[in-house]
Every structure is written in C-alpha cells, then in structure tokens.
Design goal:
2 domains, alpha+beta, 17% strand, 12 helices, 43% helix, Endonuclease, Chain A, 251 residues, 434 Repressor (Amino-terminal Domain)
C-alpha cells in the first residue's frame, strides 16, 4: 500500500499563516489577481517588485520567503535583516510604535533632523514613558549652524530649511528635555545613514545623494550573536563614534 507523503509547507505559506493574512489580502494589497498569489504559494517565483512588496507586507526578508535566492550569502546576514522597505514612508506607523515601545534598556536616534518623529506626539510620549522607566535615550541631531547641515540642505534642494527643521525638532522634543535619562547632542558629521535603535533592533535609513531621507530605503535589523563585526554591530559602532564627537545641546 502506497504511503501518502505530505509536501512540506513553503516558507511563504507559513509566513502568511503566521501573519494571519489571507490570499485575498495579499492580492488586494499588491494589486494582483488572487490566482497569481495561489501560483506563488504553489512555488512560482514572483517578479522582484512583488517579492519586495510581499516581504514588506509580511515584514520578512525575501531570503526568508525564498531561501534559494540567498545563494552564497552568509547566513548571519540573512538572520540580521528582518525586512527591507523601498522608502521610509513604507515603514508602517505601527512598526515605529512597536519599535520604540520595545526598547527596555536604550533607545538611540541619529539623524540630521528626523522631523517626522518629533512631530508624532504619540511617539514622543512613548519615549517619555520609556525615560520615566529609566530607559536611556540618546538623540543625535545635526548642528543647525554647521557646514554639514548646510551641505545636506543643498543636496536635498531645501537649502536653509534643513537647519530650520532641526531647530523645530529641538522645540518639539521639549517633552523629553527634563528627563535625567534623556540626552540630546548636536553633531557635525556627514551622515551616510540615519539610525534608529531600540535595544537589539535597528532601523537604518541610508542617505541617497539628491534624495530626501523619506524617499530612501530602510533596513530593519536585529542583532545576532555577540555583535562583533556583524551588520548590526557596524551601524551600532558608527552611532557611538558620532555620539562621542558630538556636543551636548546648549541649555
């Protein structure tokens, strides 16, 4: 009597189930026919833009959904990258909330301005609640009077508006300035990335010449191992170097 063998569940099908997403949900979000999603679940490889859309939707790296794409990449890198986003606006607002809420030891922000965060009163309140719970919060903003900020403003085509945004952010962070575990410093670094850290998770927003940070990609990273020489550790070390050279916010 022949034994019926049940085929293994594909990583994509398992990820959809864990995310509680139906085939029709995926189809509607990505603008494809449900039958197309069924073919993906059956093993057909989606086009790159649909792979990236799926990865963003499920908040997984595409290599987690289609492992054969990883090729010769080191597995530690695969494990560190939780998700990629085509631009900062594609990062779900709920992820930002969960990200900062999850910080139990330290929260770090390295930006030129990061106005979108400072304008979100809910996120600022989350950071204040964390500070009240003795979580260390370190915020690095560009020095509005520095040549580096002027250069970045010129690159983005907004000139003096970049410095004005930073001054606005300083005012908006007034809810945090009286907390003993919160420190804001001004840096004069040429930034290649904006970095947001909450304990062992990190959102990295690479800067692209001539493009505002909001329109540039975002990597969602998670620390693995001891952090020595890994992807997460590289960005964490960069944050520390900028922090060491930065000056405290004038009182």
């Amino acid at each position: 009597m022949a034994v019926k063998v049940t085929p293994p569940i594909s990583p994509l099908r398992r990820a959809l189930a864990e995310s509680r997403l139906r085939e029709v949900d995926v189809a509607e979000t990505l603008g494809v026919d449900p039958k197309t999603v069924q073919r993906w679940l059956a093993g057909r490889l989606p086009q790159p833009r649909h792979r990236w859309g799926l990865a963003d939707l499920i908040q997984r790296h595409e290599y987690d959904l289609w492992p054969h794409l990883a090729g010769g990449l080191a597995p530690t890198i695969n494990r560190e990258i939780l998700a990629t986003y085509t631009h900062r606006g594609a990062v779900p607002r709920e992820l930002w909330r969960q990200f900062f809420t999850g910080g139990e030891s330290e929260i770090g922000i390295l930006v030129y301005a990061g106005l979108f965060l400072a304008e979100d009163i809910d996120l600022v309140r989350i950071m204040r609640h964390k500070a009240e719970d003795a979580v260390t919060i370190r915020i690095l903003l560009g020095d509005p009077d520095s040549e580096q900020v002027a250069l970045r403003g010129a690159e983005e085509g907004i000139a003096e508006a970049m410095a004005a945004k930073i001054r606005n952010v300083i005012v908006l962070y007034r809810l945090l300035l009286d907390m003993p575990t919160v420190e804001i410093r001004l840096h004069t670094t040429v930034l290649y990335n904006s970095i947001y850290r909450a304990d062992d998770e990190m959102l990295v927003n690479p800067h692209v010449y001539g493009t505002a940070a909001a329109q540039a990609p975002v990597l969602h990273l998670q620390r693995h191992g001891d952090g020595d020489g890994d992807l997460f550790g590289t960005y964490a070390d960069s944050f520390e170097r900028v922090w060491t050279a930065a000056k405290p916010l004038p009182s």
